[in-house]
Amino acid sequence: MSSFWDALGGAFGLVVALDPDLMEIIGLSMQVTLTAVLFACLIGLPLGAAVGTFHFPGRSLVAVILNALMGLPPVVVGLLVYLLLSASGPLAPLRLLYTPAAMVIAQVILVTPIVAALTRQVIEDLNREYSEQFASMGVGRLDRMTAMLWDARYSLLTVALAGFGRAVAEVGAVIIVGGNINHVTRVMTTTIALETSKGNLQLALALGVILLLIAFAVNSCVMALRASAVRAAYA
Amino acid sequence: MSSFWDALGGAFGLVVALDPDLMEIIGLSMQVTLTAVLFACLIGLPLGAAVGTFHFPGRSLVAVILNALMGLPPVVVGLLVYLLLSASGPLAPLRLLYTPAAMVIAQVILVTPIVAALTRQVIEDLNREYSEQFASMGVGRLDRMTAMLWDARYSLLTVALAGFGRAVAEVGAVIIVGGNINHVTRVMTTTIALETSKGNLQLALALGVILLLIAFAVNSCVMALRASAVRAAYA
Amino acid sequence: GQVTFAQDKFIIVQSTTSTQNSGLFDYLLPIFTDKTGIEVRVVAVGTGQAIKNAANGDGDVLFVHSKPSEEKFVADGLGVSRADVMYNDFVIVGPTSDPAGVAGSEDVVASLKKIAEAKAPFASRGDDSGTHKAELRLWKAAGIDPSEASGDWYSETGSGMGATLNAGTGMGAYVLTDRATWISFGNKGDFEVLVEGDPVLFNQYGVILVNPQVHEHVKAEMGQEFIDWLLSDEGQSAIADYKVDGQQLFFPNAG
Amino acid sequence: MRDAAFDMTASPSTLPQPNGGEPLLDVRDLRFSAGGEQLLKGVDLTIRKGSRTLIMGPNGAGKSLLLRLMHGLLQPEHGRIFWQGAPMGRQARLAQAMVFQRPVLLRRSVLANLKFALSVRGLSGKARAGRIETALATAGLSHLARRPARVLSGGEQQRLSLVRALACEPELLFLDEPTANLDPASTVAIENLVLEANARGITIVLVTHDAGQAKRLGEEVVFLQDGQVAEKGPAGEVLTNPQSEPVRAWRDGRIYLGPNTRTIRDHASL
Amino acid sequence: MRDAAFDMTASPSTLPQPNGGEPLLDVRDLRFSAGGEQLLKGVDLTIRKGSRTLIMGPNGAGKSLLLRLMHGLLQPEHGRIFWQGAPMGRQARLAQAMVFQRPVLLRRSVLANLKFALSVRGLSGKARAGRIETALATAGLSHLARRPARVLSGGEQQRLSLVRALACEPELLFLDEPTANLDPASTVAIENLVLEANARGITIVLVTHDAGQAKRLGEEVVFLQDGQVAEKGPAGEVLTNPQSEPVRAWRDGRIYLGPNTRTIRDHASL
Ligand SMILES: Nc1ncnc2c1ncn2[C@@H]1O[C@H](COP(=O)(O)OP(=O)(O)OP(=O)(O)O)[C@@H](O)[C@H]1O
Ligand SMILES: Nc1ncnc2c1ncn2[C@@H]1O[C@H](COP(=O)(O)OP(=O)(O)OP(=O)(O)O)[C@@H](O)[C@H]1O
Ligand SMILES: [Mg+2]
Ligand SMILES: [Mg+2]
């Protein structure tokens, strides 16, 4: 695997040299992923909290559906979004196909169920502890949800990071709706797939290592923020 | 999208008619995925529980690494396993490349961090409650872990199902190490990818719907088993 | 050769997506397997990846369409020898609205010039595949460097033929594709073949046995049997017999 | 035991009014089962407006369950609960507050716990700040306001959850063993607080195991045994001159080996 | 307060031996801080083998913290704890058991909770079954063995966690307000159980707010106030004839407004 180390060195060289092409790709990766995770959390956290908190008919069915949707195949999501946005699709006038926005849409669809399903579990566990007290205090539905989302925030960070992991690693959906178009929609994962299909396996691996390091950096930042928040809460 | 309904009808027709090719593909999908999830749980549950329970130097680093590894790109995992198993790789004598076993290995690598990272969070939350009592009783390390894994089993089901979702939907890694060889390593997701590249988008979508229904069925079974276990525990 | 167990009676062919997506293998391989009892397992990936995989020894036979790379593969000693099997041709497909007005042309270079002048959208595979390399040769002949317009009217999809065609039909862009993939492609939309018949659009497929002296586990006997059959009259006429919608996709030209 | 069929159709206005305030909460033939066992076996009870009712009885008698049912946290399996003559609803619960036997505090600071409780009642700004200050001072927790509520000592937690409930100014306050973990001074203070609140018109329902406390606070005593009311009446009478065997046994610190005790051996060594 | 430098080097054998059993647990100038505040401010204490020590004091005095430190669940910030002359270790903790103020029960049945505790001590099969049966009978929980422990009533949970600790047959038993939620009969039973265990040689350290209980059970009383020992001595003396103002205040149900109370207003309305 010595050629791998060469490739890794080369790839790092590009990063260190701030190679504009690679920087553009990394930047777009982060932009698409973080936007998608943000939206997925905006939808998935309240959704999961609602299912984890309230009793309504069909609640366990919804929980099972959310769990099942964690198994949404990326390619299928990609196709669905493609068919919606394509020139002959219903949303063609938006002209979003092969834009980063389309990739964000696909990732939101993919990541939201993960965030929602895991949030449901976390909130359900907390609700077992809080629900009688809340009922006694007459806390309204919205207040219950927000209070529990807030109090479970440290556990939910892991949920959001799971969503981030799925989004940042994802290639099947974004390549279909983004098209992996150079300088437009090319991100880390689609680049890796491309280099793989070109047979540049070592380069592909090296790019993968860089992607992982970026994911590691993001996770470290989040956990450091969390730690300092915990410290502040106890100070 | 009327052609989609035709395709879906057609695909269902194949399922209902127990079309042997489709059955073979579905069967292999399930076999690979469930085996992978089983191994991922066997590794990830104790690993996550250990990180969530014990204090050791570098513990938070390990937690961050596990979180970051949730963002392991499937293509990279596929490449890594490919390079290991390839005829010129170190594990060539096992002759596993382009077999279902290779696909299982890739998925285990992909899913284990997800199971471990989410397990860590669940167990850490439970440990906050139990740890003093356990310390007081002098419960040994192994007993602590197994006791908490057992007591958190219902929450951990959701974790395992998240792993299942990731595995069943995964295509990037299995297509590289499995090769999508007809009758040998062709599974639902690689079939969907193939049909997509053939331009049979409607058929691909229909297969995706079937895959989702299978995921839904698996989730329903798991949740039904859980519900009856809960009922038995209170009877 | 080596001892072959019953369950081991198969070979692995590293090939490209065009042969797989066109359905050729689904037609061809059962005929061969019926006759010889040898199962053929096809791994269909990008040309570059196929060659790389074969170089690693992860296949017994290489069946691609990029003559220079194939010749280099043999020259490097990785393959035993190369033989022509069949050809088809490249065509330019595009929307019926034809914004660059190239429909009916037989001059592909002139057509590319028109497309560039009109800045009409063009989707390129951009993946170093045989098709991509052929496309780049044609641009060069037209005296245009499309990479300057990359991300503008010229989109490099960095994907396989099918994915690029999906992108092309999705964004209404011209695409250079091999005819076989196009004919069997299911998502044509309002696209049709606009430019064809130029002799420079010739697309040759070759087959190579991976060198068993480099990779000793290569199933040379069975691989050679497959190659021999492909090149035989029987194999050649089987290739010619494969039709989609009444159209012949590949034209045998062995020997 | 009363006739269930009769009780189901009985409306509280047709029932005899005990002297004192008018009925605030009426419990009719309340039954409740869980885990396949009947835990409350037909409880009848009237809480009059402005009264102080003490619920007493051995561990596991069903006191906390009864409070939960009266507060509307659990749905009865049989029987009815009326709040000011109408069936219980969410509105009724908002007029009540409850201090649980095991305090449930949010994973926030002491201050944030009080803030949350008051903002749920629609209070904010100055009005809230004032009430919070009073509550903290009342609980003797002013200097601990920024501490996470979960690290408070047992007694501090109990005091916090009590003033949290009081700060909401309910019409009816349920207290489930509110002084179990308190030191003598705090116990006296809380008892005075309860009497003060009652004097302001707040109806009190209090569970306790402390006979002294019962005598100091009680008007009405309801003695539960095995999910049934064994005896009820004015506190002085029930506690000093019990008419039923369970209360006599309780007063003497004996185990009551009544008809519902499964085996004598079960309780023998206790 | 003692000189810290001296205490750090003191070994228990050089310390004067109180009459009665030899020292089992020695606490020297123990200090502990959390959340930026010093919560224990130099506690010295000797628990003699076979003795019954009562820890008393107002809410928030640091009683539960002191128990946690003595049991090795928290690490002191300063000072030392010796177990039979040697520094505390895991081995020492295995010879001790503790009943927490707020019982922590596994999310399992009553039976499974006992099973788990005993199997941790290496018991299984018949020996375990026998001890479980005794424990259940002792706690009066035999008929609830299959119930999830989390749904037990407050008193039942307290009894369960007590017999769970006793079943492990520790040398030293820490009890943090073990009868706070118990009815009079159970309180008597638990007190007898504690005396019995003590008679069998088990050393007892018990936290209580109940002066009556203290008189019934106590040999030695240690009175904590604001993280410091205000007074210690034989139970009879300390409780009937206190020498220090904090204990006098406590006995009279008054708030001690000593030097460490931040403001008078803090506690005024309590
Ligand atoms: N969900 C449940 N499933 C099974 N049994 C339950 C459930 N909830 C409560 N119980 C049982 O009901 C009985 C009454 O419980 P409750 O908490 O009302 O007792 P209590 O009178 O408040 O006792 P204590 O004085 O100990 O607090 C107990 O024996 C308890 O084990
Ligand atoms: N982790 C912590 N951070 C900040 N303060 C703490 C922490 N743990 C305990 N305290 C504080 O230490 C003080 C002593 O607590 P402790 O539980 O020992 O009291 P206690 O004497 O047992 O009181 P009670 O009789 O109410 O049980 C309390 O004021 C509590 O708020
Ligand atoms: Mg109770
Ligand atoms: Mg305490």
UniProtKB/TrEMBL annotation, chains A, B:
Its main location: membrane. Pfam families: BPD_transp_1 (PF00528). It is found in: Cell membrane. Belongs to the binding-protein-dependent transport system permease family. The lineage of its organism: Bacteria, Pseudomonadati, Pseudomonadota, Alphaproteobacteria, Hyphomicrobiales. This is ABC transporter permease. SUPFAM superfamilies: MetI-like (SSF161098). It comes from Roseibium salinum. It is a multi-pass membrane protein. NCBIfam families: ABC_perm1. Keywords: Membrane, Transmembrane, Transmembrane helix, Transport. InterPro entries: ABC_perm_TupB-like, MetI-like, MetI-like_sf. The chain crosses the membrane at residues 33-54, 61-85, 97-118, 154-181, 201-225. Residues 26-222 form the ABC transmembrane type-1 domain.
From TrEMBL, chains D, E:
SUPFAM superfamilies: P-loop containing nucleoside triphosphate hydrolases. Residues 1-22 are annotated as: Disordered. Keywords: ATP-binding, Nucleotide-binding. Pfam families: ABC_tran. Residues 25-251 form the ABC transporter domain. InterPro entries: AAA+_ATPase (IPR003593), ABC_transporter-like_ATP-bd (IPR003439), ABC_transporter-like_CS (IPR017871), ABC_transpr_LolD-like (IPR015854), P-loop_NTPase (IPR027417). The keyword Signal does not apply. GO terms for molecular function: ATP binding. SMART domains: AAA. Belongs to the ABC transporter superfamily. This is ATP-binding cassette domain-containing protein.
